[in-house]
Amino acid sequence: MFARRCSRLVASKTAVPLTSYLSRVGRPYSSAASAYENILTETPKPGVGLITLNRPKALNALSSPVFKEINDALSKYEEDKDIGAIIITGSEKAFAAGADIKEMAPLTFSSAFSNNFIAPWSHLANNVRKPVIAAVSGYALGGGCELALMCDIIYCTSKATFGQPEIKLGTIPGGGGSQRLTRAVGKSRAMELILTGKNFSGKEAGEWGVAAKVVDGGKEELLEEAIKTAETIASYSKVAVLAAKEVVNKSQELSLKEGVEYERRIFHALFGTRDQKIGMTAFAEKKKPEWSNE
Ligand code: CAA
Fold first, then answer.
1. Dist. CA 168–CA 100, nearest whole Å
2. Active-site residue, 99 included
3. Between the CA of residue 238 and those of 12, 83, 140, 213, 245, what are the distances in Å?
4. What's this model's pTM, rounded to 2 decimal places?
C-alpha cells in the first residue's frame, strides 16, 4: 500500500525534502518527477500528503505562480481518497517570506481589483476540507504568516519568525492576517503587531496559542512531529475527520448558540455513517476499528 502510494505520489527536484528524515527512520521511499517549479509534493507516510515550498532564491515568496501550484497540489490531495491529512512546510530558513513584493510593486488599484489579486489564496481556507498542518521553520512573514494561519494547525520551531510587516511597505495584510491573527491572539496584540510590523518568535507563537506545538530543534524535528500528527489524523474515519474540522471552523463564524446547534446537527448526521457503527462496535468488542470512510 505504502509503496503504491509512494510511486503514485511525487517528489521533484531536491530541496532536501524528507530524504534525510526518511533515511533516519528507515522508511521505504521512492520519488518521481513532478511538473511543479516552486513546490515539492511527497507522501512521507500512508495517508499523509506533504507540500514543501521550494523557491529558495526568494525565501519562498508567494508569487501567483507559487500559489497556483500550491492550490493544484491541495486539490489533488483533496481528491485523493487515500490522503487523510496534508502538511505545508518550507525550508529551514523560510516557511515563506511573504507575498512576492517584486510582483506586487508595479500593481495598480485597477489591475489588483479587476484581477481580484490574491483571491486564489483563499482556496485553502474555503475549499480544502481535509485537515492541513503548517510546519513553520524560519520566516513566516506577511503572506507567509497568513498562509500558516489559513492552515488548521500550526507547528513551528522555537526560532521561527512570524510577523505581519506590511505596514513597513506602505500597505496592510491582504491574505487574511488582520482577521485570522486577531482571532488567534486578540485585538490588542494583533493591533500592536500589525501597526508596528514587529515580528514574533515561534516560542511566542506557542505561548499565545497561534501554534499548537513548538519544537526545540530544526526543520527535521519539526517535520517529524507534524508527520506524526498528520498520520494520527489520517488513521481515523475520514468522514468523521471532515466533520470535526467543519464544526471547529464554524466556531470562528457563528454565535455560540448557533455553533453548538450546528455541531449537534452534524453529530446527529454522523449516526447515519457506517464508521460511527464501526467505531462504537469496535469499542464494545475491544477491537481496533477498520474504517470504511463511509
Ligand atoms: N518578495 C519577493 N522577494 C523576496 C521576499 C518577498 N516577500 N522576501 C525575500 N525576497 C528575496 C529578496 O529580495 C532576495 O532576493 P535577491 O537575492 O534577488 O535580492 C532573497 O529573497 C533573499 O532575501 P534577503 O537577501 O532579504 O535575505 P535576508 O536573510 O537578508 O532577509 C528577510 C530575510 C528578513 C525575510 C527579508 O528578505 C525580508 O524582509 N523580506 C520581506 C518580508 C516582507 O516584507 N514580507 C511581507 C510581504 S507583503 C505581503 O505579504 C502582503 C500580503 O499580506 C499578501
1. 15
2. yes
3. 28, 9, 30, 23, 11
4. 0.91
| 212 belongs to the catalytic site | no
Q: Compute the distance from residue 124 Cα to the ligand 1 centre, in Å.
A: 23
Question: pLDDT digit string (tens) for 127-141?
Answer: 999 999 999 999 999
Task: Decide if 105 is catalytic.
Answer: no
96 catalytic per annotation:
no
| 54, 59, 67, 122: residue to mutate for ligand 1 pocket, most atoms within 8 A of CB | 59
Pick from 66, 71, 34, 63: which is nearest to 53 by CA? Answer: 66
Q: Is residue 293 part of a domain?
A: no
Q: In what order do the strands lie in the sheet with 161-163?
A: 94-96, 139-141, 161-163, 200-201
Mean pLDDT for the stretch of residues 144-162: 98
Give per-residue pLDDT as tens, 231-263.
Answer: 999 999 999 999 999 999 999 999 999 999 999
Mutate to test the pocket of ligand 1, among 101, 150, 172, 193 (most ligand atoms within 8 A of CB): 101
Same-domain pairing of 271 and 207:
no
Which are the contacts of 257, defined by CB distance < 8 A and separation ≥ 6? none
My answer on whether 192 and 217 are in the same domain is yes
pLDDT bracket for residue 2 (50, 70, 90): very low
CATH of the domain at 40: 3.90.226.10
Flag whether 291 is in a domain.
no
